[in-house]
Design goal:
Elements (H helix, E strand, L loop, with lengths): L7 H33 L2 H26 L5 H72 L6 H15 L2 H5 L5 H6 L4 H10 L7
Length: about 200
Amino acid sequence: MKIWSELPRAQAREMVADLATLVWVGLWGFIAWQIYSVLASFAEAGRAISEGGRNLGSAGDELSRALQNVPVVGGGASDALRDSFTEAGQPFVQMGTELEGFVLAAATVLSLIILALPLIPWLNRYLPWRLERLRTVRSANYVIRRAPDLSRPQVERILASRALHRLSYESLMEYSDDPFGDWVNGRHDRLARAELATVGLRPRW
């Protein structure tokens, strides 16, 4: 399975782009996680408020149990005391829970925004280009290298034809001083190399 082009320059460009993308994503992922961790730590205030409300209810339970052992007062008074403490602590439990949820949600949203702002423009340029290069290299490799019924001259002639009809004159001149003459006289190797270069492959018959 091919991941990069075979030509050194094209391969180096793709590898640098892949590495740069990996570093960029990792860097901003780390920054976003650190920001989330800092902001999420403020949720501890909500947990403390909730814990305070629960502790108030626990104190009511302890006082209720103590009153049950007091003659005459006992029973109903202990239940009323427990209920009053529980009701008094319940708003703190609810407020603390809501505060904790709000802080965690805000930390998540803000971290995702910070992560998305630098990554979306980068990946919007990188991914289409990289996927196109990957599809081109793999498709060309499959078609060109898996032609068992064709001889080398036949494959070169087909590639030369594609180069002559598809590439700009400037691109052709990088590989041949006389592209038309090469084609007419059956010198297809240089034109074939030009076509292979556009798809990131080296001559290998």
